[in-house]
Amino acid sequence: MLSHKPPMGWNSWNTFAQNINEKLIMEMTDVIVNEGYQAAGYEYVIIDDCWSLKERVDGKLVPDPELFPNGMKHLADYIHSKGLKFGMYSCAGFKTCAGYPSSYGHEFEDAKQFAEWGVDYLKYDFCNFPQSGDAKNAYLTMAMALRNSGRDILFAACNWGEKNPSQWMRSHGAHTYRSTGDIFDAPKSYIDIFKSQIDNVEGNGPGCYNDMDMLITGMHGNGHVGLEGCTDAQYLQHFALWAFLGSPLIIGADLRSLDPVNKDVILNPGLISINQDDECRPAFCISKVGENGFCIAKILSGGRIAIGMFNVSETDNVWCGARINVSFDDLGLHSETNLGLKLTDAFTGEELGVFHDGFSFEVGAYGSKVLIGEIVNG
């Protein structure tokens, strides 16, 4: 299965937008391999919009020879030689979001072209879609084209939550689907996306995942979607929320200059293990406190459970002093079972001890506490 687990990788758009070329993509590929990202599970190197000539040539999409002088097959071969996978971009409309030729009416010929180049992942956007068009059929058509291209290509549908994709994208052949508008490098952006999706992840599971857009962790206001940036605590919270809710983990920062603190966040083994757990079950919300307090749980393989506590407010008083209490009853463990939870901090790996009946922790402004619980007797 192409998407048994949420895909992990890097995409060029958040930082570079149209400023892409062969050299950049190869450099990013090398960083992914040499600096531990590949070992952590990041495997897709994805080129976004602006890679082609402005017009088709003999009916075909053609890479801009000034940007990609050796062509896409050469680039794909380089990425594959490093043990990684190659991602490309097109759009369901008659032009891409940046005004380049797109795949509307050309789905089968484009899918065959992508397969010949060695593409493993297709991000499929939704700009410039005809008002008379049928969005569901457009994504179904590309899904069928990819499935008949002669190559396994993960289909990352990106229609920004239009037409309620959670209700039909899985059945129409997508492996992931974008559920929201674009993310920007500001706390309000990732928090608004999280709040809009906390009740919309139940359908996440092997085969099709709700994509809450690419990661902004470590961007610090730089790049195409850079605004005021976020603090390190906010970047950690953003990454933890995406990991916990089962979103694809697609890095948007420039990995060549990523600071050590946020590199450690993106490579955090505890958070990645929750996102990539073998059972791939969706998270569920235990409780909400006001507008900004959330306690979320996720059943993991091996009889374990993950618990996430998040304060997405700039103040500490979400839970009367920012302390949140969790009852084991809300985790399916009633007191009379005499079962305890051996808790480990997912961020640090620190063992916190065995708890019975419940527990509580302080979660301050823009704070996050993610725990992995192992059920123990007595």
A few lines on this structure:
Helices cover 25% and strands 23% of the residues. The chain is α/β, with parallel strands linked by helices.
Give the SSE layout.
Blueprint lengths: L7 E4 L1 H4 L5 H13 L2 H4 L3 E3 L24 H11 L3 E7 L15 H11 L3 E5 L9 H13 L6 E4 L18 E3 L8 H11 L11 E3 L20 H13 L4 E3 L8 H7 L2 H7 L8 E6 L3 E7 L4 E8 L11 E5 L11 E7 L5 E6 L1 E5 L5 E10 L1
Parallel strand pairs: 1-2, 1-8, 2-3, 3-4, 4-5, 5-6, 6-7
Antiparallel strand pairs: 9-10, 10-11, 11-16, 12-15, 13-14, 13-16
Helix pairs in contact: 5-6, 7-8, 8-9, 8-10
- Side by side, the strands of the main sheet go 7-6-5-4-3-2-1-8
The SSE string, one letter per element, is EHHHEHEHEHEEHEHEHHEEEEEEEE
- DSSP summary: helix tally: 10
Integer count of domains: 2
Query: How far is the N terminus from the C terminus?
Result: 40 Å
The level of helicity is 10-25%
Mean pLDDT: 95
CATH architecture type of the largest domain: Alpha-Beta Barrel
CATH superfamily of the largest domain: Aldolase class I
SS content category: alpha/beta
CATH topology of the largest domain: TIM Barrel
Beta content? 15-25%
Shape annotation? globular
Counted beta strands: 16
**Highest-level CATH class of the largest domain:** Alpha Beta
Largest sheet: 8 strands, parallel
The Rg value, from CA coordinates, equals 21 Å
Low-confidence runs: none
